[in-house]
Amino acid sequence: MKKILKKVGIALLIILLVMQFIRPDKNESGYESVAYFETATKPTEAIQTILKDKCYDCHSNQTIYPWYAEIAPVSYWLSDHVEEGKEHFNVSEWEQYSDKKRDHKLEELIEEVEEGEMPLSSYTWLHGNLEEGEKEILIDWVKKLRSQYASVK
Fold first, then answer.
1. Could you give the count of Cα atoms lying within 13 Å of 137 in the half-sphere of its Cβ?
2. Which of 26-30, 79-83, 137-141 is modeled with the greatest confidence?
3. CA dist., res. 94 & res. 72, Å (int)
């Protein structure tokens, strides 16, 4: 039994070592990926800070990776989070969204923030959660922003 455990342990160690050299693609297009969104939505400085600090990492093509993102299997886990976040809402694709889709995405943003679903708890462990004041100004801004797109329904 000890020999089997030793072989399994060695195999797992080799797999973990090999994973360090096979990395997922990074999501780093730079600031220009959110420029259209910011130009179209005109966020205040406070809103821009919230978006940059709490949203863009998973909901744009502009992820700023922490040091631990270089270590597998964390790198794979983070890559999956970013890809999933972008599937639901990607500000870097704002230009391609129809007004109806923009309104719907903003409606979902309000729901997720109000229900405490965003940012994800796994993100907030190290990056912090939205404070109540931040939630309020973000939701108020998004509600005003929705009025631009709501008439399209």
1. 13
2. 137-141
3. 31
- Per-residue tokens: 95: 């230009």
3 state SS of 61: coil
CA distances from 50 to 20, 45, 55, 138, 143 (A): 32, 9, 7, 8, 16
Rg over alpha carbons for the chain, rounded to the nearest Å, is 19
What are the residues whose beta carbons fall under 8 Å from the beta carbon of 134, sequence distance 6 or more? 50, 54
Q: What pTM does this model have?
A: 0.79
Tokens of 71: 């270590």
Helix (H) or strand (E) holding 33: helix 32-41
| Residues 6 or more apart whose Cβ sits within 8 Å of residue 131 | none
Instruction: Yes or no: say if 149 and 100 are a contact pair by the CB < 8 Å rule.
Output: yes
For the chain, the residue count is 153
If one compares 43 and 2, the residue with the highest pLDDT of the two is 43
Q: Is the pLDDT of residue 153 over 60?
A: no
